[in-house]
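Handoff note, outgoing to incoming analyst
You'll be picking up this chain. Sequence as last confirmed:
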Amino acid sequence: MLAAAGRSLAQDASAQTAVHWDKIVQESRTTPTLQVVVNPPLRLGTPVHDNAFQALHDLGADFVRYVPWLPYPRLGVAELEPPKDGKTSWDFSLIDPMTIDFLEATKGHSIVLNFSTIPQWMYKTDKRIAYPDDPNKAVWDYEQGTELRDSTCNEVADYYARLLSWYTKGGFTDEYGKRHESGYHYSIPYWEVLNEVDFEHRMTPQTYTRLYDAIVTAMRKVQPELKFVGVSLATPGQNPDFFEYFLNSKNHGSGVPLDYISYHFYAVPTPDETLEVQQHTVFAHADGFLNTVRYIETIRKRLSPGTGTMINEIGIISADDIAQVDPNHVAKPMPASYWNLAGAEYAYIFAELTQLGIDVAGESQLVGYPTQFPSVSMVDWNNGKPNARLWVLKLLHDNFGPGDKIVEIAPANPFAPEQPYVTGLAVVTKLGKRKMLLVNKRDRNLDLSIAGAAGSRFDYVDVTTGFQPPASTKLASDKLMIHGFSVGVLTFP
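Most recent structure output, in case you need it:
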Protein backbone atom coordinates (compact mmCIF):
# COMPACT_ATOMS: atom_id res chain seq x y z
CA MET A 1 0.00 0.00 0.00
CA LEU A 2 1.14 3.52 -0.72
CA ALA A 3 -0.12 5.42 2.31
CA ALA A 4 2.65 7.99 2.60
CA ALA A 5 5.65 9.37 0.80
CA GLY A 6 8.13 6.68 -0.11
CA ARG A 7 5.76 3.76 -0.64
CA SER A 8 5.01 1.77 -3.80
CA LEU A 9 4.07 3.67 -6.95
CA ALA A 10 4.06 1.04 -9.65
CA GLN A 11 4.11 -2.56 -10.66
CA ASP A 12 4.95 -3.70 -14.19
CA ALA A 13 1.44 -2.68 -15.20
CA SER A 14 0.86 1.06 -15.47
CA ALA A 15 -0.04 2.50 -12.08
CA GLN A 16 -1.77 5.70 -11.06
CA THR A 17 -0.87 7.89 -8.14
CA ALA A 18 -1.39 11.39 -6.84
CA VAL A 19 0.35 13.71 -4.42
CA HIS A 20 -1.57 15.45 -1.63
CA TRP A 21 0.39 18.69 -1.63
CA ASP A 22 -1.62 20.12 1.26
CA LYS A 23 -0.94 17.18 3.58
CA ILE A 24 2.46 17.79 5.16
CA VAL A 25 3.94 14.71 6.82
CA GLN A 26 7.09 16.27 8.29
CA GLU A 27 9.97 18.62 7.54
CA SER A 28 13.13 17.21 6.00
CA ARG A 29 16.45 17.57 7.80
CA THR A 30 18.49 15.37 5.45
CA THR A 31 21.50 16.60 3.46
CA PRO A 32 22.68 14.50 0.49
CA THR A 33 26.47 14.47 0.24
CA LEU A 34 29.54 12.25 -0.25
CA GLN A 35 32.86 11.21 1.20
CA VAL A 36 36.31 11.83 -0.27
CA VAL A 37 38.83 9.14 0.63
CA VAL A 38 42.51 9.95 0.18
CA ASN A 39 44.22 7.82 -2.46
CA PRO A 40 46.92 8.32 -5.10
CA PRO A 41 44.70 9.22 -8.10
CA LEU A 42 43.70 12.40 -6.23
CA ARG A 43 47.29 13.59 -6.11
CA LEU A 44 48.26 16.62 -8.19
CA GLY A 45 49.46 15.71 -11.68
CA THR A 46 47.35 12.59 -12.20
CA PRO A 47 44.73 12.38 -15.00
CA VAL A 48 42.05 12.21 -12.30
CA HIS A 49 43.00 15.15 -10.07
CA ASP A 50 41.69 18.20 -11.92
CA ASN A 51 38.35 16.78 -13.05
CA ALA A 52 37.59 15.09 -9.73
CA PHE A 53 38.21 18.21 -7.64
CA GLN A 54 36.32 20.33 -10.17
CA ALA A 55 33.34 17.97 -9.88
CA LEU A 56 33.54 18.24 -6.09
CA HIS A 57 33.61 22.03 -6.30
CA ASP A 58 30.74 22.18 -8.80
CA LEU A 59 28.58 19.92 -6.63
CA GLY A 60 28.66 22.44 -3.78
CA ALA A 61 27.59 19.94 -1.13
CA ASP A 62 27.65 20.43 2.63
CA PHE A 63 28.89 17.92 5.22
CA VAL A 64 31.43 16.46 2.77
CA ARG A 65 33.53 13.91 4.64
CA TYR A 66 37.30 13.84 4.06
CA VAL A 67 39.16 10.71 5.16
CA PRO A 68 42.92 10.11 4.91
CA TRP A 69 42.81 6.32 5.39
CA LEU A 70 45.03 3.46 6.51
CA PRO A 71 46.28 1.93 3.19
CA TYR A 72 48.51 4.95 2.53
CA PRO A 73 50.33 5.90 5.75
CA ARG A 74 52.47 8.57 4.08
CA LEU A 75 49.36 10.29 2.72
CA GLY A 76 47.44 10.23 5.99
CA VAL A 77 49.69 10.03 9.05
CA ALA A 78 51.55 13.23 9.92
CA GLU A 79 53.92 11.74 12.53
CA LEU A 80 55.10 8.35 11.31
CA GLU A 81 57.82 7.85 13.93
CA PRO A 82 57.81 8.47 17.71
CA PRO A 83 59.59 11.51 19.13
CA LYS A 84 63.15 10.66 20.13
CA ASP A 85 66.26 12.49 21.32
CA GLY A 86 64.67 15.91 20.98
CA LYS A 87 63.51 15.32 17.41
CA THR A 88 60.06 14.63 15.93
CA SER A 89 58.95 13.27 12.56
CA TRP A 90 56.11 15.71 11.87
CA ASP A 91 55.78 16.00 8.08
CA PHE A 92 52.79 17.32 6.12
CA SER A 93 54.56 17.59 2.76
CA LEU A 94 52.62 14.70 1.19
CA ILE A 95 49.43 15.23 3.19
CA ASP A 96 48.86 18.93 2.61
CA PRO A 97 48.51 19.05 -1.19
CA MET A 98 45.40 16.84 -1.32
CA THR A 99 44.00 18.23 1.92
CA ILE A 100 44.35 21.83 0.77
CA ASP A 101 42.84 20.94 -2.61
CA PHE A 102 39.89 19.48 -0.71
CA LEU A 103 39.53 22.49 1.59
CA GLU A 104 39.67 24.87 -1.36
CA ALA A 105 37.18 22.84 -3.44
CA THR A 106 34.67 22.83 -0.57
CA LYS A 107 35.28 26.39 0.64
CA GLY A 108 32.06 28.04 1.76
CA HIS A 109 30.47 24.70 2.68
CA SER A 110 30.47 22.67 5.87
CA ILE A 111 32.91 19.76 5.93
CA VAL A 112 33.70 16.82 8.19
CA LEU A 113 37.38 15.94 8.60
CA ASN A 114 38.44 12.50 9.76
CA PHE A 115 42.14 11.72 9.89
CA SER A 116 41.20 8.17 10.69
CA THR A 117 44.58 6.49 11.17
CA ILE A 118 46.32 6.73 14.53
CA PRO A 119 50.13 6.60 14.18
CA GLN A 120 50.92 2.92 14.55
CA TRP A 121 53.79 3.48 17.01
CA MET A 122 51.24 4.65 19.56
CA TYR A 123 50.05 1.01 19.85
CA LYS A 124 51.84 -1.79 21.65
CA THR A 125 53.10 -4.45 19.21
CA ASP A 126 55.77 -7.15 19.38
CA LYS A 127 57.82 -5.43 16.70
CA ARG A 128 57.90 -2.19 14.74
CA ILE A 129 55.31 -2.05 11.97
CA ALA A 130 56.89 -1.07 8.66
CA TYR A 131 55.29 1.05 5.95
CA PRO A 132 56.29 1.56 2.30
CA ASP A 133 58.68 4.27 1.18
CA ASP A 134 56.45 4.73 -1.86
CA PRO A 135 53.47 6.89 -0.77
CA ASN A 136 51.37 5.43 -3.59
CA LYS A 137 51.81 1.82 -2.51
CA ALA A 138 48.90 0.40 -0.54
CA VAL A 139 49.56 -1.53 2.65
CA TRP A 140 46.79 -3.35 4.51
CA ASP A 141 48.60 -4.34 7.72
CA TYR A 142 49.69 -0.93 9.01
CA GLU A 143 47.10 -0.85 11.78
CA GLN A 144 47.95 -3.48 14.40
CA GLY A 145 47.43 -3.92 18.10
CA THR A 146 44.55 -3.18 20.45
CA GLU A 147 46.34 -1.55 23.40
CA LEU A 148 47.74 1.97 23.36
CA ARG A 149 51.23 2.45 24.80
CA ASP A 150 49.83 5.45 26.72
CA SER A 151 46.86 4.15 28.70
CA THR A 152 45.68 7.71 29.44
CA CYS A 153 44.97 8.26 25.71
CA ASN A 154 46.64 11.67 25.99
CA GLU A 155 49.30 10.86 23.40
CA VAL A 156 46.65 10.17 20.76
CA ALA A 157 44.58 13.15 21.88
CA ASP A 158 47.53 15.53 21.60
CA TYR A 159 48.27 14.23 18.09
CA TYR A 160 44.78 15.13 16.94
CA ALA A 161 44.85 18.51 18.68
CA ARG A 162 48.04 19.33 16.75
CA LEU A 163 46.47 18.19 13.47
CA LEU A 164 43.56 20.54 14.04
CA SER A 165 45.85 23.39 15.00
CA TRP A 166 47.93 22.87 11.84
CA TYR A 167 44.93 23.55 9.60
CA THR A 168 43.03 26.10 11.69
CA LYS A 169 45.50 28.02 13.90
CA GLY A 170 48.51 28.45 11.64
CA GLY A 171 50.59 25.69 13.21
CA PHE A 172 51.40 23.98 16.52
CA THR A 173 54.06 23.36 19.13
CA ASP A 174 55.45 19.81 19.11
CA GLU A 175 56.34 17.43 21.94
CA TYR A 176 59.70 19.14 22.49
CA GLY A 177 58.38 22.69 22.42
CA LYS A 178 59.35 23.47 18.83
CA ARG A 179 56.92 25.57 16.80
CA HIS A 180 55.80 24.26 13.39
CA GLU A 181 54.23 26.94 11.19
CA SER A 182 51.65 26.16 8.51
CA GLY A 183 50.04 29.52 7.84
CA TYR A 184 46.65 27.81 7.45
CA HIS A 185 43.53 29.25 9.01
CA TYR A 186 40.77 27.14 7.49
CA SER A 187 37.30 26.73 8.93
CA ILE A 188 36.68 23.15 10.04
CA PRO A 189 33.26 22.94 11.71
CA TYR A 190 33.04 19.15 12.20
CA TRP A 191 35.55 16.46 13.13
CA GLU A 192 34.77 12.75 13.09
CA VAL A 193 36.70 10.75 15.67
CA LEU A 194 38.24 7.71 13.97
CA ASN A 195 36.70 5.32 11.44
CA GLU A 196 35.07 1.89 11.57
CA VAL A 197 36.48 1.18 15.00
CA ASP A 198 34.69 -2.16 15.11
CA PHE A 199 37.28 -3.21 12.48
CA GLU A 200 40.23 -0.86 12.98
CA HIS A 201 42.07 -1.89 16.16
CA ARG A 202 38.90 -3.82 17.12
CA MET A 203 37.81 -1.35 19.77
CA THR A 204 35.23 -2.12 22.42
CA PRO A 205 32.57 0.50 23.23
CA GLN A 206 34.40 1.23 26.47
CA THR A 207 37.81 1.69 24.81
CA TYR A 208 36.43 3.86 22.05
CA THR A 209 34.45 6.06 24.44
CA ARG A 210 37.54 6.72 26.58
CA LEU A 211 39.54 7.59 23.48
CA TYR A 212 36.74 9.77 22.09
CA ASP A 213 36.54 11.73 25.35
CA ALA A 214 40.29 12.33 25.42
CA ILE A 215 40.47 13.43 21.77
CA VAL A 216 37.43 15.69 22.03
CA THR A 217 38.68 17.32 25.22
CA ALA A 218 42.09 18.07 23.67
CA MET A 219 40.68 19.35 20.38
CA ARG A 220 38.16 21.64 22.08
CA LYS A 221 41.06 23.44 23.73
CA VAL A 222 42.20 24.35 20.22
CA GLN A 223 38.73 25.13 18.85
CA PRO A 224 35.95 25.30 21.47
CA GLU A 225 33.15 25.60 18.90
CA LEU A 226 34.18 22.44 17.00
CA LYS A 227 31.43 19.80 16.74
CA PHE A 228 32.19 16.10 16.80
CA VAL A 229 30.98 12.92 15.14
CA GLY A 230 31.41 9.67 17.04
CA VAL A 231 31.10 5.88 16.73
CA SER A 232 31.60 5.51 12.92
CA LEU A 233 30.79 1.80 12.75
CA ALA A 234 31.21 -0.44 9.69
CA THR A 235 28.62 -2.99 10.83
CA PRO A 236 26.10 -1.13 13.00
CA GLY A 237 23.57 -3.95 12.95
CA GLN A 238 26.05 -6.23 14.71
CA ASN A 239 26.95 -3.72 17.42
CA PRO A 240 23.86 -2.42 19.24
CA ASP A 241 25.88 -2.37 22.48
CA PHE A 242 28.10 0.31 20.96
CA PHE A 243 25.18 2.71 20.65
CA GLU A 244 23.76 1.79 24.05
CA TYR A 245 27.09 2.58 25.70
CA PHE A 246 28.29 5.57 23.69
CA LEU A 247 24.97 7.44 23.70
CA ASN A 248 24.65 7.18 27.48
CA SER A 249 26.08 10.43 28.82
CA LYS A 250 26.89 8.70 32.12
CA ASN A 251 29.71 6.92 30.29
CA HIS A 252 31.38 10.19 29.26
CA GLY A 253 33.35 12.83 31.08
CA SER A 254 31.60 15.98 32.25
CA GLY A 255 30.92 18.38 29.42
CA VAL A 256 31.97 16.03 26.60
CA PRO A 257 29.52 16.71 23.73
CA LEU A 258 27.63 14.03 21.81
CA ASP A 259 26.91 16.09 18.71
CA TYR A 260 26.53 13.31 16.12
CA ILE A 261 26.90 9.59 15.66
CA SER A 262 27.79 7.97 12.35
CA TYR A 263 27.75 4.56 10.72
CA HIS A 264 27.96 2.95 7.30
CA PHE A 265 26.20 0.69 4.83
CA TYR A 266 27.29 -1.22 1.76
CA ALA A 267 25.26 -3.82 -0.07
CA VAL A 268 27.58 -6.73 -0.88
CA PRO A 269 26.35 -9.16 -3.56
CA THR A 270 27.93 -12.62 -3.69
CA PRO A 271 30.53 -13.57 -6.33
CA ASP A 272 28.14 -15.71 -8.37
CA GLU A 273 25.49 -13.01 -8.86
CA THR A 274 24.90 -11.49 -12.26
CA LEU A 275 23.70 -7.90 -12.47
CA GLU A 276 20.20 -9.26 -13.07
CA VAL A 277 20.34 -10.94 -9.66
CA GLN A 278 22.23 -8.11 -7.95
CA GLN A 279 19.35 -5.67 -8.44
CA HIS A 280 17.27 -7.82 -6.10
CA THR A 281 20.08 -8.37 -3.58
CA VAL A 282 21.04 -4.70 -3.36
CA PHE A 283 17.60 -3.41 -2.47
CA ALA A 284 16.90 -6.31 -0.12
CA HIS A 285 20.13 -5.47 1.73
CA ALA A 286 19.11 -1.81 1.73
CA ASP A 287 15.78 -2.65 3.33
CA GLY A 288 17.56 -4.67 6.00
CA PHE A 289 19.85 -1.73 6.71
CA LEU A 290 16.90 0.64 6.99
CA ASN A 291 15.50 -1.59 9.72
CA THR A 292 18.86 -1.27 11.49
CA VAL A 293 18.55 2.51 11.20
CA ARG A 294 15.11 2.41 12.81
CA TYR A 295 16.46 0.34 15.67
CA ILE A 296 19.44 2.64 16.24
CA GLU A 297 17.16 5.67 16.07
CA THR A 298 15.09 4.18 18.88
CA ILE A 299 18.24 3.88 21.02
CA ARG A 300 19.39 7.40 20.12
CA LYS A 301 16.04 9.02 20.88
CA ARG A 302 15.86 7.23 24.22
CA LEU A 303 19.39 8.03 25.41
CA SER A 304 20.47 11.20 23.60
CA PRO A 305 17.70 12.82 21.53
CA GLY A 306 19.79 15.92 20.90
CA THR A 307 22.45 13.91 19.05
CA GLY A 308 22.28 13.95 15.25
CA THR A 309 23.00 11.08 12.86
CA MET A 310 25.31 10.99 9.86
CA ILE A 311 25.16 7.88 7.69
CA ASN A 312 28.23 8.88 5.76
CA GLU A 313 29.19 5.83 3.71
CA ILE A 314 26.48 4.43 1.44
CA GLY A 315 27.16 2.26 -1.58
CA ILE A 316 27.72 -1.18 -3.05
CA ILE A 317 30.94 -3.16 -2.69
CA SER A 318 31.21 -5.84 -5.34
CA ALA A 319 32.54 -9.26 -4.43
CA ASP A 320 35.23 -8.64 -7.03
CA ASP A 321 36.41 -5.59 -5.06
CA ILE A 322 36.98 -7.69 -1.97
CA ALA A 323 39.08 -10.14 -4.00
CA GLN A 324 41.40 -7.35 -5.13
CA VAL A 325 43.47 -7.50 -1.95
CA ASP A 326 45.15 -10.41 -3.78
CA PRO A 327 47.89 -8.76 -5.89
CA ASN A 328 47.41 -11.44 -8.58
CA HIS A 329 43.69 -10.81 -8.91
CA VAL A 330 42.48 -9.65 -12.31
CA ALA A 331 39.54 -7.26 -11.98
CA LYS A 332 36.39 -8.05 -13.90
CA PRO A 333 34.90 -5.34 -16.12
CA MET A 334 31.75 -3.70 -14.78
CA PRO A 335 28.58 -3.54 -16.86
CA ALA A 336 27.65 0.04 -17.74
CA SER A 337 24.28 -0.29 -16.00
CA TYR A 338 25.99 -1.18 -12.70
CA TRP A 339 26.63 2.51 -12.07
CA ASN A 340 22.92 3.20 -12.50
CA LEU A 341 22.03 0.40 -10.08
CA ALA A 342 24.41 1.91 -7.53
CA GLY A 343 22.96 5.38 -8.14
CA ALA A 344 19.42 4.08 -7.70
CA GLU A 345 20.41 2.33 -4.48
CA TYR A 346 21.76 5.58 -3.03
CA ALA A 347 18.71 7.57 -4.13
CA TYR A 348 16.38 4.98 -2.59
CA ILE A 349 18.23 5.04 0.71
CA PHE A 350 18.32 8.85 0.65
CA ALA A 351 14.54 8.96 0.21
CA GLU A 352 14.00 6.57 3.10
CA LEU A 353 16.51 8.30 5.39
CA THR A 354 14.80 11.61 4.65
CA GLN A 355 11.57 10.20 6.02
CA LEU A 356 13.40 8.79 9.05
CA GLY A 357 14.79 12.22 9.92
CA ILE A 358 18.49 11.37 9.45
CA ASP A 359 20.72 14.45 9.21
CA VAL A 360 23.28 13.38 6.61
CA ALA A 361 23.19 10.75 3.84
CA GLY A 362 26.68 10.42 2.39
CA GLU A 363 27.43 8.52 -0.80
CA SER A 364 30.75 6.67 -0.91
CA GLN A 365 33.15 7.68 -2.47
CA LEU A 366 34.54 10.28 -4.88
CA VAL A 367 37.38 8.14 -6.29
CA GLY A 368 37.79 4.39 -6.28
CA TYR A 369 39.87 2.46 -8.80
CA PRO A 370 41.11 -1.07 -9.52
CA THR A 371 42.77 -2.45 -6.35
CA GLN A 372 40.96 0.22 -4.28
CA PHE A 373 37.23 -0.55 -4.32
CA PRO A 374 36.44 0.49 -7.91
CA SER A 375 32.76 -0.38 -7.45
CA VAL A 376 32.27 2.56 -5.06
CA SER A 377 33.80 5.19 -7.34
CA MET A 378 31.72 8.23 -8.29
CA VAL A 379 34.03 9.24 -11.13
CA ASP A 380 35.70 7.51 -14.05
CA TRP A 381 39.03 6.43 -12.55
CA ASN A 382 40.74 7.04 -15.89
CA ASN A 383 39.98 10.76 -16.10
CA GLY A 384 38.11 11.86 -12.97
CA LYS A 385 34.91 12.80 -14.79
CA PRO A 386 31.60 12.04 -13.04
CA ASN A 387 29.87 8.72 -13.55
CA ALA A 388 26.16 8.07 -13.02
CA ARG A 389 26.56 7.87 -9.22
CA LEU A 390 27.87 11.43 -8.97
CA TRP A 391 25.22 12.74 -11.36
CA VAL A 392 22.55 11.12 -9.17
CA LEU A 393 23.98 12.88 -6.13
CA LYS A 394 23.99 16.21 -7.96
CA LEU A 395 20.37 15.66 -9.00
CA LEU A 396 19.40 15.05 -5.38
CA HIS A 397 21.54 17.90 -4.06
CA ASP A 398 20.07 20.40 -6.52
CA ASN A 399 16.47 19.47 -5.75
CA PHE A 400 16.15 18.26 -2.14
CA GLY A 401 17.45 19.24 1.25
CA PRO A 402 16.78 20.31 4.83
CA GLY A 403 13.70 22.46 5.24
CA ASP A 404 11.67 20.74 2.52
CA LYS A 405 8.11 19.89 3.54
CA ILE A 406 7.52 16.17 2.91
CA VAL A 407 3.97 15.59 1.70
CA GLU A 408 1.70 12.58 1.37
CA ILE A 409 1.59 10.43 -1.74
CA ALA A 410 -1.84 8.90 -2.31
CA PRO A 411 -2.38 5.13 -2.61
CA ALA A 412 -2.08 3.87 -6.16
CA ASN A 413 -3.41 0.40 -5.43
CA PRO A 414 -4.55 -1.05 -2.09
CA PHE A 415 -2.99 -4.36 -3.11
CA ALA A 416 0.36 -2.99 -4.22
CA PRO A 417 3.28 -5.34 -3.42
CA GLU A 418 5.18 -4.92 -0.19
CA GLN A 419 8.44 -4.74 -2.16
CA PRO A 420 7.76 -1.92 -4.62
CA TYR A 421 9.64 -1.48 -7.87
CA VAL A 422 9.42 2.31 -7.72
CA THR A 423 9.90 4.53 -4.69
CA GLY A 424 8.73 8.11 -4.47
CA LEU A 425 9.34 11.11 -2.25
CA ALA A 426 7.24 14.26 -2.69
CA VAL A 427 8.15 17.61 -1.17
CA VAL A 428 7.41 21.30 -1.25
CA THR A 429 10.80 22.97 -1.19
CA LYS A 430 11.80 25.99 0.87
CA LEU A 431 11.22 28.09 -2.26
CA GLY A 432 7.71 26.69 -2.68
CA LYS A 433 8.53 24.38 -5.61
CA ARG A 434 6.62 21.11 -5.81
CA LYS A 435 8.97 18.22 -6.53
CA MET A 436 8.77 14.45 -6.61
CA LEU A 437 11.66 11.98 -6.57
CA LEU A 438 11.14 8.73 -8.48
CA VAL A 439 13.53 5.77 -8.17
CA ASN A 440 13.20 2.70 -10.38
CA LYS A 441 14.63 -0.30 -8.55
CA ARG A 442 14.54 -2.53 -11.60
CA ASP A 443 16.50 -2.69 -14.85
CA ARG A 444 13.42 -2.36 -17.04
CA ASN A 445 11.06 0.35 -18.19
CA LEU A 446 8.02 1.15 -16.05
CA ASP A 447 4.92 3.16 -16.90
CA LEU A 448 3.45 5.63 -14.41
CA SER A 449 0.50 7.98 -14.32
CA ILE A 450 0.84 10.82 -11.83
CA ALA A 451 -2.07 13.20 -11.33
CA GLY A 452 -1.21 16.77 -12.23
CA ALA A 453 2.14 15.91 -13.82
CA ALA A 454 1.25 17.33 -17.23
CA GLY A 455 3.54 20.26 -17.95
CA SER A 456 6.12 19.09 -15.40
CA ARG A 457 9.85 18.99 -16.12
CA PHE A 458 11.43 15.58 -15.56
CA ASP A 459 15.18 15.52 -14.93
CA TYR A 460 16.69 12.05 -14.80
CA VAL A 461 19.74 9.79 -14.72
CA ASP A 462 19.24 6.26 -16.04
CA VAL A 463 20.72 3.56 -18.28
CA THR A 464 20.26 5.80 -21.32
CA THR A 465 22.25 8.76 -19.94
CA GLY A 466 25.44 6.85 -19.12
CA PHE A 467 28.15 9.08 -17.66
CA GLN A 468 26.48 12.22 -19.00
CA PRO A 469 24.71 14.89 -16.90
CA PRO A 470 21.03 14.41 -16.11
CA ALA A 471 18.74 14.57 -19.12
CA SER A 472 15.49 16.55 -19.12
CA THR A 473 12.10 16.34 -20.76
CA LYS A 474 8.73 18.07 -20.42
CA LEU A 475 5.63 15.98 -19.85
CA ALA A 476 2.76 16.51 -22.26
CA SER A 477 0.38 14.50 -20.07
CA ASP A 478 0.16 12.84 -16.67
CA LYS A 479 1.75 9.70 -18.11
CA LEU A 480 5.45 8.97 -17.75
CA MET A 481 7.68 6.07 -18.76
CA ILE A 482 10.88 5.69 -16.73
CA HIS A 483 13.85 3.64 -17.90
CA GLY A 484 15.73 1.00 -15.95
CA PHE A 485 17.40 2.15 -12.72
CA SER A 486 16.05 5.63 -13.33
CA VAL A 487 16.52 8.32 -10.69
CA GLY A 488 14.35 11.24 -11.69
CA VAL A 489 12.89 14.43 -10.31
CA LEU A 490 9.51 15.78 -11.39
CA THR A 491 9.16 19.53 -10.94
CA PHE A 492 5.46 20.30 -11.11
CA PRO A 493 4.13 23.44 -12.80
